[in-house]
Amino acid sequence: MKQLFQKVKQWLSTLSFRTGMIVLLCCIPFYILSFAQLALPISTSVKGVLWVILFGLAKTCQYGGLTILGVEGIKRLKNKFK
User: Model-level pTM?
Assistant: First the structure.
């Protein structure tokens, strides 16, 4: 299992900076949707399922984007905000 994670991590790190930024920015709508759906007039169990799915997608995009960017991409991103 550890080898599989290493292969996925290595493949993600070969993607471009732009791809990493797009994936990282995709987490924002998922975070918004995961909490906004709580205001919908639906049953509590459906709200719970939707929250788990949407919050999970947000976290997946967040960590996937950070993995794609890597250390150098994060340094590059910090320099843009300075």
Answer: 0.80
